[in-house]
Structures are given as C-alpha cells and as structure tokens.
Design a protein that fits this description.
Layout (H helix, E strand, L loop, with lengths): L5 E6 L8 H10 L3 E6 L9 H8 L8 E2 L2 E2 L2 H7 L2 E7 L1 H8 L6 H8 L4 E5 L3 H5 L1 H12 L3 E2 L3 E4 L5 E5 L3 H14 L7 E6 L4 E2 L5 E2 L6 H12 L3 E6 L11 E4 L3 H12 L4 E4 L6 E3 L18 E3 L3 H8 L5 E8 L3 H11 L4 E6 L11 E2 L1 E5 L4 E3 L3 E2 H14 L1
Parallel strand pairs: 1-2, 1-5, 5-6, 6-7, 10-13, 10-15, 13-14, 15-18, 18-19
Antiparallel strand pairs: 3-4, 8-9, 11-12, 16-17, 19-21, 20-23, 21-22
Helix pairs in contact: 1-2, 1-8, 3-5, 4-7, 9-13
Bound molecules: cytidine-5'-monophosphate (C5P).
C-alpha cells in the first residue's frame, strides 16, 4: 500500500530515535521511498550511517552541507507526507511557534504536503500545559498527531509519553493513504461556531460554541480530498486554509450564505450553534441602565438545517447536530425526522468533558434507516474521523 509513496521521515533527539531504524526498514520493505532528515540532537541517539544504509539515501542534517544547499522548499513538495518521529517537546514547541533554526524546521514551515507528528517525551513534559497547548496549535494547523503510548519511560517512570511503535506508525500511514482520497472532488459545506445577534452597538446574544468541532470535521474532509466551504461564526480558533471560508456574525448571514452555497454541495454538515432567536430591533445607541428591569423583544430565526432539508435533492446528504440536556435520544430522532436530515449527531451536555468549548466530545449518530452508531469520549479530531467514516459507510 505504500509502494512508491514518498516519505520524508524527520528524526529528532529523543531516545525513541533508536526505533527509527526499524521504522525505515519497514517503510522500505513496503516499497516506499524514504528521505530522512535528522536534527543534530538526533545524531546522538542513532547514527546517520545506520539510517542512510537502511534508507539507501544520504541523511540530510544541515541546510548547508559541504558547498551544497539542501532545498527545503522542494523537499516539502517532493514528499507525499512529512512524518516527524520521534517528535520531541522542543521540536513540537518550535513548530507551534514558527521557529526556523534547523533544516527540519525550515522544511516544516514550507511544506505543502500533509504532516504527521509522532510525539515522544517524558510524562511530565507531555502533560505540561505548554506542550498540550503546542499540540493543539499543530492540530489547528491541520497536522495529524498520533497519540503517545502509556508505558515505561526512559526516566524509569511509568506514564504517557512513549512514541508509538514502528509497526503502529506503519499501520497509521497505511490508513492515512487509503482514506486520503475517499472524498476526492466532493463539495462539502460545513457550518461552525456560534452566531452573535446584536442588541445595540456594543452588546449581543450568543452562546458558548467554540467552533472546534466544525473545524475538526472540515479538516478531516479536506485531508480526505474534499473541497470544503466553511461558514463560521465568531471564533478564537485558528481557521486552516479551506477552499472557501465565509466568516459571518448573525444567523441571518449564515442562512444567506448557506442558501448561496448549498445547490453545488454533495454534503452539508450543520455543526454551528445557530441562535434560535434574534432581536426584533437593534438599538441604534447603547442602551442605558435607566430602569431596574429591561425587556428585549426577540423573534425566531429561520432554521437553516430545516430549510436545507426542505430543498435538498436526492443525491445530497444533510447532517445536523443535536445538543441536548434532556430526553436526548428521543429529541435527536425527532430532529432527524422534522428536519429531513440523513444523519443527526447527538451530543449531550450531561456527558462530562464533552461538547461546548472542550477538546473532546462523545457522540451518537442516528441515521434515517433507524440505526444508532455510538462512540466513546474522544478528541474532537477523532470524533471527526468517526463522523466522516459513518457518513461514507452509508
Ligand atoms: O433544533 P436545534 O437547534 O436543536 O437543531 C440543531 C441543529 O440545527 C444543528 O445542526 C444546527 O446547526 C441546526 N440549526 C440551524 N439553524 C438554526 C438552528 C439550528 O441550522 N436556526
């Protein structure tokens, strides 16, 4: 499955670097073409001679080597995937912050190919908030992060931080390449984030949606070859380079943009937490606190999912979300029917550590054949994979 694939394997200075000899052997055995980059620190853990013998290519370490210049831009264009394994805490921090002080980092910053990161470090370094924040940044950049393994660490401690085993990395690469193009040429519309309904020039009505789930789904669709149009409300999240990104504020703006885009779409996934009510009138001036109570009159917004459900053609797939606090399953199934959706994804505010603002989510997907697909609590990136896989299977 990896025959002819061009793998740019980048090794950094972790004790787990010794396992890359096995990794290179496995990749070459599968017929992949492997070019290795090492950091200086990595050469303390495994010899470039070992790696160049196994990969059958000179290992690149410096931007300038004997009078020749390693063309970092072309390396990132040549590769089908850039695999950073093991990725140390230090390299991850530099990647997250755009630091460019060695060949590996300059290739990373100019790479146009997908990037897979396989972290390896001690438990405390892995758990440190700065590392977790850096990992989040890399995910937002669209990089795929393989989970660390819990077990015995070089320090003698036991905990999370071990690099995934070479066999596991190989397996992940294979599934990355198989699924890579299964959404090729599909047009997918995704809504995400909250909406803001203005009250006066300084105030608005909104909700706690962060936009993370919608961005994770959009990312997964893009990685799998889809042309993604994202209509997103105000968010602090970094938005990757999708085919089209439309930033809106109000439910009405989200509706108008979805109306414009939907006809050309194969799939629409409505992940946004759209306001159900908006203000009847927006005050021209800031409302003064002249009285002890204040009434603001609200009117219903149009349900975008329901509207798209009423005009959708047979070959279009429509997916909605249901965030429920009571009678979860019953409400979700009811929504599926009322809104003429093909799938409704239920997440409950009763699940601890899931939904709004969190990095994790726990979902059940109901389809219109009456099947329920239940999933464990996992990262929103992993949830996005489950969602896309479930839609594709049907
Ligand atoms: O009915 P409820 O708001 O719970 O339905 C949630 C689903 O409907 C989500 O997929 C959400 O994006 C969508 N929705 C919408 N337009 C609205 C309200 C909700 O598209 N005005």
């Amino acid at each position: 499955m990896l025959k002819g694939k061009k793998i740019l394997l980048c090794i950094t200075g972790s004790i787990a670097a010794y396992k890359t000899a096995t990794l290179v052997r496995l990749l070459v055995k599968q017929g992949a073409e492997v070019q290795v980059i090492m950091t200086e620190a990595a050469t303390n853990f495994i010899s470039p001679l070992t790696i160049s013998t196994l990969s059958k290519k000179k290992v690149l370490i410096h931007i300038f080597d004997d009078d020749t210049w390693a063309n970092h831009v072309m390396l990132g264009r040549w590769a089908d995937v850039m695999l950073i394994a093991p990725a140390t805490c230090n390299t991850i921090a530099k990647m997250a912050n755009g630091i460019c002080d060695n060949l590996l980092l300059s290739v990373y910053l100019s790479a146009t190919c997908p990037v897979i990161v396989v972290p390896a470090m001690d438990e405390d370094m892995w758990m440190h908030l700065s590392t977790q924040r850096n990992i989040e940044h890399l995910q937002q950049f669209g990089n795929l992060i393989l989970p660390v393994v819990t077990g015995e660490l070089a320090s003698g401690l036991f905990g999370p931080g071990r690099m995934a085993e070479p066999e596991k990395i190989l397996q992940e690469l294979e599934s990355f390449f198989t699924k890579k193009n299964d959404l090729q040429n599909k047009n997918i519309l995704i809504t995400a984030g909250p909406t803001q309904e203005p009250i006066d020039p300084v105030r608005y009505l909104s909700n706690h949606s962060s936009g993370k789930m919608g961005i994770a789904i959009a990312n997964e669709c893009m990685v799998r070859g889809a042309k993604v149009t994202l209509v997103i409300g105000p968010t602090n999240q970094k938005i990757p380079n999708f085919n089209k990104v439309i930033q809106i504020q109000t439910a009405e703006e989200m509706l108008q943009n979805c109306k414009n885009e939907f006809a050309n779409m194969d799939v629409a996934i409505m992940c946004a937490a759209v306001a159900d009510y908006t203000t009847v009138e927006v005050s021209k001036n800031k409302i003064k606190k002249n009285s002890s109570t204040l009434q603001i009159e609200l009117k219903r917004t149009k349900d975008i999912l329901k509207y798209l459900g009423s005009i959708k053609k047979e070959n279009q797939i429509l997916v909605g979300f249901a965030l429920e606090t009571e009678n979860e399953e019953q409400n979700a199934k009811e929504k599926l029917r009322q809104k003429n959706a093909d799938f409704i994804i239920l997440n409950s505010l009763n699940d601890k550590g899931a939904a709004f603002g969190s990095n994790n989510n726990k979902i059940t997907i109901f389809d219109k054949d009456g099947d329920a697909h239940r999933f464990e609590l996992k990262s929103k990136e992993a949830v996005a994979i489950d969602i896309v896989n479930t839609i594709l299977k049907k």
